[in-house]
Amino acid sequence: MKNFSWIVCLLVVAVLASPAHALLVRRGQSVEVSIGEVIEDDLIVFASSVEIKGVVTGNVCAFAQTVNVSGDIGGSLFIGAASSNINASSVQTIWAAGGNLNVSGKVDKNVILAGGSLNVDADAGIGKDLHAYGGNFAVNGEIDGAIKGAVGRFVMAGKSSRVKIRADEARVKSTAVISGDFILTSESQPKIDEGAVITGETTIREIEPEESRQFFFAIAPLFALLFGVIKVIIWVSKIIVGILLIALCRNYVRRVMDTLIKVPWKSLGLGFLGVIVIPVVAVVLFATLIGYPLGLVAVYAYTILLYVSSLFVAVVVGEKVIQLFRKGKEVSLYLSFITGMLILLVVSFIPILNFLVRILVILFGFGSVMLGTWQVLKEMRGKDLI
Length: 386
Fold this sequence. Notes:
Number of helices: 7
Low-confidence stretches: 1-22
Number of domains: 2
Radius of gyration: 28 Å
Shape: elongated
Order of helices and strands: HEEEEEEEEEEEEEEEEEEEHHHHHH
Strand content: 25-35%
Largest sheet: 16 strands, parallel
Structural class: alpha/beta
Distance between the termini: 28 Å
Number of strands: 19
C-alpha cells in the first residue's frame, strides 16, 4: 500500500506541479491543516481522515476515507474519498469522486463530481459550470454557468443559467430558477413544480431502446482502444521487469527454468495447489487478529507469483523455440525471454487458445517459481547462508 501511494503521488506531482509552488506530502491515520496554519505549497494527502481548516496557497490532492474542507484553497481541489464535505471559503476548481459528496462555499470556476450521492448546498456559489455523474444529484445553490451530466435522480432547487442533463428521474422544485434552456434526456417525464422559473425552452428527449444501443456501439471502439493501450502498457512493463530480473538474478532465473524443464508435471501440480490454497490460507489468517500480518505477506507473495509466473514460462518457451533453429548453441536469456513474450502475445489474440494457454502459463509458472525458490532456499540453508 505504501509503494502504491508513492506511485500515485508521483503521478499527481507530474500533473499538478508548477513553477509557482513547491510540493508537500502528508501521510498518516489522520491529517489536519489547522486553523491559522498556512501551507505555501501544493499539498498531497494520504490518510484515513483529512481536515483542512487552514490555508493552502497551491493545489490540494486528498485520498482518504473522509475529507472535510473548510479552509482557503488557492488552487484546485482534487478529492478521492468515500465521504467528502467541501465548504471552502475559496477554491478555484473542484474535482471530486466518492460515495457521498457535499459541496458548499465559494468556487471560482468549475465543479466536477462523480459518485453515489451528490449534493450542492443552498449557500454554494459556483462561478462557471457544474458537471455531475452518478446516482442522486441535488442542486440547491447558485451556478453561474450550466449544469451538465448524467445521473440517476436529479433534483433542481437552485439557480443556473442552463441545464442539460440525462437522468432516470428529474424534478424541478418551486424555488428553482433556470435563466436559459432546460434540456432533459430521460425515459420519464420530469416533475416541474408550480412556481419554478425557466426562461428558455424546455426540451424533453425520451430515450429509445435503439438509441441506447447506438450509444453503446458508438463508445465500444473507445473502450476497445483503451483496453488495447492498457494491454500494451502491461506487456511492455513485463518486458522491462523480465530484463531486470535476468540482469540482477541470472542464476535464480536459470534455476527456476531448469525446474520447469526437468519436472514440468510436478510444477503444474504444485502450481494448481498454490493458486487455490494460498488465497484460502490468507483468508483464514485475516480472520484472526494475530495472523493478520502473515495474511498480508501471503497476499503480497501471491500477487508477485501470479505476476512473474508468465515471465519464467516465456523464457523457457523462447529458449526451446530458438533451440529448434540453433541446435547445440548457447542461447541468450534475453533473446529467449523476448521471443517467448512475443509468442505468448501472439497466442493472446486467439480467442479459445488464449484462455487455455493463459491458465497453463499461470499454473506451470506458479509451481516452478515456488519449487525452484524452495530448492534455492534449501541449498542456501545447507551452506549456512541463511
